[in-house]
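Repro:
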Amino acid sequence: MRTPDCDSRSPKILWGTLCGVLFTLQAVAQSVTVPDVVTLLLADAEEVLTSAGLSPVLENVGCSDEYPLTTILSQDPPAGAVVSPGETIFLIMVSGPCSVTVPDIRGMDFDLAEIELFNLGLIRGDLTVECSDTVPAAHIIDQNPPPGTLVQAGTSVAVTVSDGICYRVPDVVGMTLSAAELQITTAGLVTGAVLPVCDDRYPAGIIVGQSPPAGTAVEPGSCVMLQISTACLAVPNVSGLSRTSALQAIRSAGFAAGVVWQECSNAIAAGNVISQSPPAGTDAVPGSQVDLVISSGGCPVSVPAVEGLSQSAAQAALTGANLTAGLIIQQCSNTVPAGNVIFQRPSAGTLIARGSAVDLVVSTGQCERYVTVPSVTGLTESAATTLITATELYLNRIDRQCSDTVPAGRVINQTPSTGALVVPGASVDLVVSTGGCPVIPDVSGLTQEEAQSQIIAAGLTPAILAQQCHETVSAGVVISQSPAPGGSTVLGNTVNLVLSTGPCNAVVPDVTGLQETEAGPALEAAGLVVGQMSVQCSDTVEAGRVISHTPAAGTPVSYGIPVNIVISGGNCLTAPGVTGQPLGDAQSALQDGGFSVGTVAQSCSDSIAEGTVISQNPPAGASVAAGTSFNLVISSGPCPVTVPALEGRSKAVAEAILTVGRLTVGAVTTACSDTVALNAVVGQSPPSGTQVLPGTAVNLVLASGPCTVTMPAVTGQTEADARQILLAAGMSVSTVTYECDGVPKDEVISQTPAGGVLVTVGTQVTLVVSSGPCPPRTISVPDLVGQNQISAVSWLVSSGLQVGTVTQECSDSIAGGTVIRQDPEAGAGALFRVELECHQVFRRHPGDEVIAVHGKGQAMLIPFRDHVIGVNEVKV
């Protein structure tokens, strides 16, 4: 029988059904049902799956306390799934039990114990080594978890392994040092530090303590530190003695000078001992150190809060705090009662020296008035200055600061804040933006010159923080920088650089303790040179020998770098205090003490008399060598103050500003001013910005009025009234001319200079006054028809006539702006004016289409002698 062609398009339904059955049978023949291999061993499972035409693959392993090793725990796809022949079946088999009993490996060899743990699926964990008198070396002493513990496979077991028999510290207390050392050596140990102690229970030379204690199990070769009894000495009492006397007493008693530091004291004079350690009378080892605390003088005191107190109460509070009242400034206040303190300087809580002065601002009572501080934040500097001055305030100080949000030249902040009520003349401080804040450049790897150039270009200041050797960075190149690059900072801030000196091909030798003449050759032998040499006192290092050096011994450096050396100048002396003494007395005191005077500088002081020492260096009480040079700063007298800018201020405000600035008002004169209001300051002497002594008188020049005035308009006034008006304005009448006119008799026709112009006071004015009407005269009217308006007006004026009414009309035949007719007609006699009628044209904009406009305009009637033409105003 022929197999039907299922692809042929048979019209018979039977063929279609038969084809579907054949396809189904073919599909069934090409699929496999997955057999169940779970609980079979791996080898059996692989055989079953391969026989079914499938591909077994071991995907993973797992533990089981129920099934033996290699038992299949799961399969994927599961049993019963229908898959294609050759499909991969993933298997998971048992690799061992899930829980394991920890074996007992104590006493076993370490290697065998590790094998035992591995075979059971466990891991050797932390390893501790201890000595043991019972367990041989390399054998297990202990284990954790202990034997028999049920744990998960893979658990770590920590072990303790013996490294052999234990070495124990012998008991040597009560022995001599030699006997103790023999015992320690015999025990396989080493004698460590031997410290002398004072112990009255044992004779000198006997061991009184040991560490570790006797019986302690230790490693072989361990150190045993000992304490040995020595004769006891009583520490002397040096409290209250001078530093020099105290050190001498300590050495005489068989002790050494220890640490000496300073503290302030209100009871102990500067340079004397406040306390000692150990205390006086304590039994101590001969040669041991005695530490001292030396007085640096009186302790600073905290300024009491006196604001709001009466002046007398404030002064009493200052006296009680060992301070004095300084400058007393009187100032009005709308909030603080008269006689009470408004403000103090320094502020409450500030620590200052005893006897210092505290300045007080005392209320005189209610102010006549106060002003509100305007808001100038965000304004330009000039606009802010103008507004502050206009508010009768004083621009005291302008600080400049970068800002990434406020444009350059504009105000970032102000003090006092907006809306604050202050007296006229109060000062206002501003912070003005310099523009965006500079970004710190990255200069690592650049040469010193390149780095400094980039830092300066960024508006910052370069500084060399240190120089050190470096194996990879060439000499003169930047190793690192601080602050780090990329951040924003304030204009002018410092960027510190660490520069390379080149490879680390030398090591600084230890020259401490050498003579000055020995230190140089030792450094040169190491390839280095002597840098700066300074002298410092020392109670322990002999004069002329090296106390210390920088870099320190052992520091890797580059060949040829300088090493700075500190040379001992001998025993330390206490620097005397000469502050508050006249210069001559101070110089004598220093020279009598074996010292010299170095530089003498001057500085102003409001509290210390001229020629008196303000400060000294080294300070009083410092430890210094004999012959040390002392630099002194002496008072040059009171500190100068800056004369404020007073121009434009009222006299009252100027006086208030001078009082606050510790100055006085001198001579007051007047002068005219076109820019300054009446009675405001137009000049001052000394000028603003001048440095003067407190209390200096500042002369003021007040505005007496404007120097230039507006010329009064007197046209139309009678001659008598015009003269009075001009004289009242500070003018004078020089010449009067009389002319006939249509203006009533004795009225002013014109003036020179004209009214409304600015002139100086005392300017002479020329007047033209009417002498009455002029006699009538007849003028022949010219023919203006056909002329443009400008020409027509010129003709009228030149003929002595006036322009009358101008009427506008449109015309299809006459050009715009041309006269159509006139009244009176040409040739008629006229006394005053002539009427014109013309055609006016306008454009809305240049180039627009011409628009004829009907309209009328009234020309101004101007006296013909002035030759001024009236202009029509035409509305469209």
